[in-house]
């Protein structure tokens, strides 16, 4: 008798790609077909002020994970002419705030055309989503403008920078979360979290279906995995370099310690010799001639002993 065993379909299901991977993030939000999702995401961050957005570099072809990092950003123009640049970063560095300022300034300056009046310039908004702790404050969303710290007067509303820190938002009762919290949980959450979010709103359901589609696309998957490997290799190289630096530092410290020890031993030997000869009424000049110790050092040793 032969028994038929039915295989579970989810056993061989493809794992969902990580939305924190910049390739996946770009593929998800940088597709014109997902313009509705992008608009909902941006409005969740900016407070629902945008009616429509146009991708300024839609469907940019990704051929390799080592393409320039700027390729991974999402650049859009709003219905009000405002420029928005969105990026996701998994690692930071000491100069990350300055890097963000540089990105913002280049975006704002890109409006400058010959003969264009300043009054025609529009707001530029830089948004970065980090998978690391960047700021000291406890809340996950920070917004920065040019203001007078004394009374809060805004110098110009054209400069705006948002920082969203994924590490500061935890898994909670999804029913109690607002739109932005749902999106951030979607970005950092596992498949189970995404499925739970998909049951809460039509937007999250559409987002879940899109990440499923992307995860099953062989080309996107290959580039995303290659990107993860590239980042891990980079981290390992940096760690190895740091280890080598520590080892060199230890070696140099030991060498300096040995050298310092030798110098201290020599100084103590000279002190004992000079003082013994001085006690025997040997003249300083004679001590210097007999021992090879400089006359200045002989006098310094004798004088320090007197005091």
Protein model, in words:
The chain is α/β, with parallel strands linked by helices and 307 residues long. The protein folds into two domains: 206 residues, no CATH class; 47 residues. Strands 1-2-3-4-6-5 form a six-stranded mixed β-sheet, sandwiched between helices. A hairpin with a 4-residue loop joins strand 2 and strand 3. It is elongated. It starts with 21 loop residues before the first helix and ends with a helix.
Counting DSSP E segments of at least 2 residues, the number of strands comes to 6
Rg, please? 32 Å
Number of domains: 2
Instruction: Count helical runs.
Output: 9
SS-derived structural category: alpha/beta
Describe, in short, the structure shown.
This protein has 307 residues and is α/β, with parallel strands linked by helices.
Main traits of this protein?
307 residues; elongated; 13% strand; 2 domains; alpha/beta; six-stranded mixed β-sheet; 48% helix; single chain
Q: What's the SSE blueprint?
A:
Elements: H1 22-29, H2 35-46, E1 53-55, E2 74-78, E3 83-89, H3 96-109, E4 124-130, E5 141-147, E6 154-165, H4 179-188, H5 191-198, H6 202-215, H7 218-279, H8 284-291, H9 295-306
Parallel strand pairs: 3-4, 4-6
Antiparallel strand pairs: 1-2, 2-3, 5-6
Helix pairs in contact: 1-7, 5-6, 7-9
């Amino acid at each position: 008798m032969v028994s038929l065993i039915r295989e579970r379909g989810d056993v061989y299901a493809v794992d969902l790609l990580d939305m924190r991977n910049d390739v996946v993030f770009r593929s998800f939000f940088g597709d014109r077909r997902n313009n509705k999702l992008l608009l909902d995401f941006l409005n969740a961050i900016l407070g629902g002020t945008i009616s429509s957005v146009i991708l300024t570099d839609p469907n940019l072809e990704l051929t390799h994970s080592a393409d320039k990092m700027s390729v991974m950003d999402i650049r859009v123009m709003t219905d009000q002419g405002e420029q928005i640049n969105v990026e996701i970063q998994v690692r930071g560095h000491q100069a990350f705030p300055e890097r963000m300022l540089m990105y913002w300034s280049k975006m704002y300056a890109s409006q400058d055309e010959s003969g264009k009046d300043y009054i025609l310039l529009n707001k530029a908004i830089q948004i970065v989503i980090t998978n690391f702790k960047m700021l000291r404050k406890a809340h996950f969303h920070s917004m920065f403008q040019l203001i007078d710290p004394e009374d809060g007067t805004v110098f110009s509303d054209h400069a705006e920078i948002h920082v969203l820190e994924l590490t500061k938002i935890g898994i909670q009762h999804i029913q109690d979360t607002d739109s932005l919290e749902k999106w951030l949980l979607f970005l950092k959450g596992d498949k189970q979290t995404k499925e739970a979010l998909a049951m809460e709103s039509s937007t999250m359901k559409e987002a879940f279906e899109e990440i499923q589609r992307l995860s099953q696309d062989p080309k996107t998957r290959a580039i995303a995995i290659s990107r993860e490997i590239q980042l891990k290799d980079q981290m390992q190289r940096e760690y190895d370099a740091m280890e080598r630096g520590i080892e060199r530092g230890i070696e140099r410290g030991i060498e300096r310690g040995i050298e310092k020890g030798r110098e201290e031993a020599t100084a103590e030997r000279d002190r004992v010799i000079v003082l013994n000869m001085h006690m025997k009424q040997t003249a300083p000049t004679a001590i210097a001639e007999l021992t090879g110790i400089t006359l200045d050092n002989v006098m310094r040793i004798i004088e320090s002993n007197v005091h």
